[in-house]
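Lab notebook: predicted structure, single chain.

Context: the supervisor wants predicted structures on file for every construct in the current expression panel, including those that have not yet been purified. This is the next one on the list. No modifications to the sequence; it matches the entry in the shared construct table.
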Amino acid sequence: MVNKTVFENTEIAFGLKSDSELERAFFLFKMISIEPLVRIGTAATNFAIKAKLPVEGLIRATVFDHFCGGVNEEDCLPVIDKMYEKGVSSVLDYSVEGKENEAEFDGALKITLKIINFADHRKSIPIAVFKPTGFGRFALYQKITEGKTLTAKEEEEWQRVVNRYDQVCQAAKAKDIAVLIDAEESWMQDAADDLITDMMRKYNTEKPIVYNTLQMYRHDRLDFLKKQHELAKKEGFFLGYKLVRGAYMEKENERAEERGYPTPICESKEATDINFNAGVSYMLEHLEEMSLFAGTHNEYSTYLVMDLMAAKHIDKADKRVWFGQLYGMSDHISFNLSHLGYNVAKYVPFGPVKDVMPYLIRRAEENTSVAGQTGRELALLTKEKKRRKKASKAE
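Prediction complete. Output recorded below exactly as produced.
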């Protein structure tokens, strides 16, 4: 069994933060912990950006620099290099959302290919990522998921989506860089899943290069994983999956209620936790045929993966198992894991400040709504502030 106090080491967790960065982090999480303030701040920020008020400098110096690596990939390099000195890799995530036209989809493709080229020969960036709706219209994925017939024009449009996926997966395989494809809402996800499985068939012939994402708050995802495993064994390709709890719960439940169908979401937080833990357990049982990227900020689930790895004599540095957290959050998990020798990667969002605002607002709202998340961050930051104060007095 793994020592269950390893995430308490704040000296390792915040080793990269200066005293002023520690104070900024404390201030930000303190603000985020006050729900009305997040709502007011969100509205004010949206208004200021739309009104073209000069707030970008303020946003950049506070919330942006805490949760994002920079405005472009070069700008992210100091963050990437600093983290890699501590053994934490980076997944550069172009976090510009809500694009709807072909020029924007081609732009997202260009940036993703640029990231893969940028990552080539940089051990600090072993993984790339993109969102399905970065490469095609949500409504098109939805139409395919619903089994509706596409028009001739839509067939051509879908072929362009397929070609974008193919270009990225081909480039990733050529440079031996894993590519994680995010999951989105359930009513468009089947189309993405089928396309990603096609990419796995084509490119995961020697090992997983292409990774799909399973949102384990969906009660059907464990069955989906097992069926995919049977398919992969039958057809002779490898599976790669990033397992997360999920990011669209309110939206999923609301839509199910409005339209009168059973929600795809687990009945409780506990049921989601059980599902997530069952998913990682299943994958670790079958590492010969699949690779796991455990995307979690949950300490219990992280300890579970560590315990299972120890029980199954899986080496900590085995490249078939990765842990992932978001930049600016859960440093106590990321840096303590890397200190112990596990494979860890931080998602490092980047993009122009005003374009990344929807992402940053979602981060603030999620931290407000996830019970205990912000409190845990504040408690650890407080502990480290006290430790440093004590250490400076002792000098």
